[in-house]
């Protein structure tokens, strides 16, 4: 579980990132969760964008991504979801 201080630090780190995944009309599926898990292993911190044409509410998308990837939710702003998961092989981010 992340502390408030760690979440603030991760929000700062994520600010300049561009979203590398977009959830659209199809919603969240197993393939997307698998790809996001692999990206989290490589990067630890990433943004996911929920597009306007997504059929699922963004809260459902957020919950599906968090439970499916077993990542920590850092933040949800508008249609942007920021996820963090400590990498086993490729640790880059040192939390305060």
TrEMBL record:
<feature type="domain" description="CRM">
    <location>
        <begin position="1"/>
        <end position="96"/>
    </location>
</feature>
<dbReference type="InterPro" id="IPR017924">
    <property type="entry name" value="RNA-binding_YhbY"/>
</dbReference>
<dbReference type="InterPro" id="IPR051925">
    <property type="entry name" value="RNA-binding_domain"/>
</dbReference>
<protein>
    <submittedName>
        <fullName>Ribosome assembly RNA-binding protein YhbY</fullName>
    </submittedName>
</protein>
<dbReference type="Pfam" id="PF01985">
    <property type="entry name" value="CRS1_YhbY"/>
</dbReference>
<dbReference type="InterPro" id="IPR035920">
    <property type="entry name" value="YhbY-like_sf"/>
</dbReference>
<keyword id="KW-0694">RNA-binding</keyword>
<dbReference type="InterPro" id="IPR001890">
    <property type="entry name" value="RNA-binding_CRM"/>
</dbReference>
